[in-house]
Amino acid sequence: MSELKHEFTWKLPARPARVFAALTNADEVSQWFAEHAEIEPQVGGAYRFWGKHSYGTPSKADATQRITKFAPSQALAFTWRIHDRDSEVSFLIEADPENPEASVVKGMHSFAEAPAINRAKEMIDDLWRFNWGNVSAHIAGGQGKMLVDYSDADPNVSLSIFIDAPPSAVFRTLIDPEKIQQWFGVAAAVDPRLGGDWHLKMEFEKEGKKVTSPPCRILDIVENERLSISWPDWRGDKNVPDQKVTWMLKPEGAGTRVEFKHDGFVRAVDISDYPFGWGWFLSRITAVAEGKSLDAVPAEHQ
After folding, report:
1. Binning pLDDT at 50, 70 and 90, where does residue 302 land?
2. Which domain range does residue 171 map to?
3. 269 and 200 within one domain
4. Residue 300: pLDDT band with limits 50, 70, 90
5. Which of 151, 205, 284, 289 is most buried, by the most CB atoms less than 10 A from its CB?
6. Has residue 301 got a pLDDT over 60?
7. Residue 93 falls inside a structural domain
8. Is 237 exposed, middle or buried (0-12, 13-18, 19+ CB in 10 A)?
9. What are the DSSP calls for the chain, one per residue?
10. Residue 14 sits in the same domain as residue 106
11. Which string of b and e fits 121-151 if b means at least 16 CB within 10 Å?
């Protein structure tokens, strides 16, 4: 089995000292990363975390992590055994040259031998996308955090939002291609019938190749009440079953209560950064349905 080395970069809305505290204070770590944490702030000290919110370390007996690098406001590294493979996580924290009130964190999660599981590379990528969303939300004040239960047999993203517009206006934002382009930011095409395409024409790079997102398929549609679509694997892996995205619209006073659900994940870690992305898109759907400017919607993870 070959090695696995995953690198990532975070931009966080706080100075390096504040970011370092969020990564090294046990009380804070237990708010955005783990159910339980015990940290001895020194090289060789414990960096123990465990519980239902910790991937691969459900119990205290599994929590054998130790600090391998500790430089206040600058760097942190610790060991983490996952799927019977030893690994090391490292963070290098720097001031953001574009914003004196923010930081740039350069991270790496490396295995001398990759875990013997399906889609190990994607698992690690999704894990750190999820952690980035939670630490960003935590540092920004806590709103929008979502600590997933990695033991959940039916993992999903469930969100609820009130929109000050009637269900008919909200429904139009979900099926009108021009309105979808406003809140999602890419061209869209919709055939608004059962079995019809609901297509976000996204283009992105995957391993150096340009990829165009496949169309979603409408699974359920009732005008002004609900819309369900299939959600193919965003990486284009045809071996991964489609997920499902549903918007339920219910009148609430003069407005609409939207119950959103994204489910069908093979494993909880596949949730990745969807909770934070969908939360942001729901705020943009709200603005479009209410006829407000999207300029007022905060940037994602800020």
Report:
1. very low
2. 156-296
3. yes
4. low
5. 289
6. no
7. yes
8. exposed
9. ---EEEEEEEEESS-HHHHHHHHH-HHHHHHHT-SEEEE--STTSBEEEESTTSTT--SGGG---BEEEEETTTEEEEE--BTTB-EEEEEEEEEETTEEEEEEEEEEEEESS--SSTTHHHHHHHHHHHHHHHHHHHHTTSTT-----TT-SS-EEEEEEEESS-HHHHHHHHH-HHHHHHHHSS-EEE--STT-EEEE--EEEETTEEEEPPPEEEEEEETTTEEEEEE--TT--TTSPPEEEEEEEEEETTEEEEEEEEE--SSGGGGTTHHHHHHHHHHHHHHHHHT--GGGSPPTT-
10. yes
11. ebbbbbbbbbbbbbbbbbbbeeebbbbbebe
pTM: 0.91
Residue 198 lies in a domain: yes
Among the three residues 85, 109, 139, which one is the final residue of a domain in this structure?
139
Inside any domain, residue 283:
yes
Q: Give the pLDDT of residue 203.
A: 81
Residue 182: CB atoms within 10 Å: 16
164 and 289 in a single domain? The answer is: yes
Could you read off the pLDDT of 161-207 as tens digits, one per residue? 999 999 999 999 999 999 999 999 999 999 999 999 999 988 877 76
Same domain, 75 and 160: no
> Do 124 and 182 reside in the same domain of the chain?
no
Query: Taking residues 255-265, what's their average pLDDT?
Result: 98
Q: Are residues 164 and 131 in the same domain?
A: no
- Sheet containing 99-111: give its strands across: 4-12, 99-111, 87-96, 75-79, 67-71
